[in-house]
Amino acid sequence: MKHFMLKHSILKHPMVTAAIVTMLWSAAATGRLTAQTGTTQAASPASAASVPRMPDGHPDLSGVWWRGADVGGRQPAPAGGRGAAPAAGRGGAPAGGRGAPGGGRGAAPVTFASLYQPQAVAQAKTLGDKDDPSLGCVSTAFGTLNVSLFDVGAVGQIVQTPKFVVLLTETYNSFQIVPIDGRPHRDNVPPSNRGEAVGHWDGDTLVVDKTNFTDTSWMSAEGRVSFHSDAMHTVERYRRVDANTLEIEATVEDPMVLTGPWIVPKQTLQLAPFDQIMELSCSSAGTPDLIKAAAQQSSGKN
Fold it and tell me: Can you give the C-alpha Rg of the chain in angstroms?
């Protein structure tokens, strides 16, 4: 499949690049979306016995994973549903921000930024779209759709070997190599935007522990103020429920900016009908113009 270049369009800053996003995602996913017609049916859940396994008996998490559709696509209708639902583009409660705006009667969902300590709340009010590190092609520390495998996109790939699980992010093409052979965290590597990871098995669940983050990335993109400190620590739990379903749970701690742990809502991903991600890279050529446009929007948007 032809590779495509995204020039910050995937960031989807609402008043700056929305039209470009729609155009480029439509182009990038044309072939992919042909499989997402209104007649596409959700795969029948397989039994736990159908979970593919490695020679050592552990579940094989390998595959391309998404929420059932790419950005701009249509998700299969749930059982008893009345039609296909739009794919999550801005997706429920994002990693950053202060919860879904008005209208609903229920309590706002707990987000990373909703747990800020008072000094962090004050700092957040001084920031806005123009300060979003992803404008300069910087990966998030977690993910805009609450899935670290996606980063700022909606598709990711896992490649598993006996010693490593490799997490590949389609958008920005970031990667994370997770040792699963019992080794501890390295103490001789510099901090990084995505952190340093090690993994171990808890029964059939892969537990991924991440530390050693920089403090220069945000938890999510799209101008959602979600800065963190270099003391952040995340624990993610990956469980392949059946041949076509992957569940991910995560807990994020950051004693420097949060009042307590953020329990990330459980995410349920589906095995995509293709076995390779695309290259959706980022160019900083348009960064000055994007920052200028973002600066015209109100600051402190959460």
Answer: 19
Assigned domain for 225 exists: yes
127 is in which domain, residue-wise? Answer: 4-35+52-74+88-100+109-295
154, 144 contact by CB (below 8 A): no
- Stretches where the chain sits below pLDDT 50 are 1-31, 33-44, 77-93, 98-104, 299-302
In this prediction the pTM is: 0.77
209 lies in a domain? Answer: yes
Residue 80 lies in a domain: no
Question: Rounded distance, CA 85 to CA 73, Å?
Answer: 9
Q: How many CB atoms lie within 10 A of CB 225?
A: 27
Token pair 């590190």 is found at: 133
Residue 83 inside a domain? The answer is no
Backbone torsions φ then ψ of 31, nearest 5 degrees: -65, -35
Domain CATH number, residue 242: 2.40.128.20
CB 200 within 8 A of CB 182: yes
164 in Cβ contact with 182 (< 8 Å) = no
- At residue 233, φ and ψ (nearest 5 deg) are -140, 130
Domain count for the chain: 1
Q: What is the pLDDT of residues 21-34, one digit of tens each?
A: 333 343 444 445 43
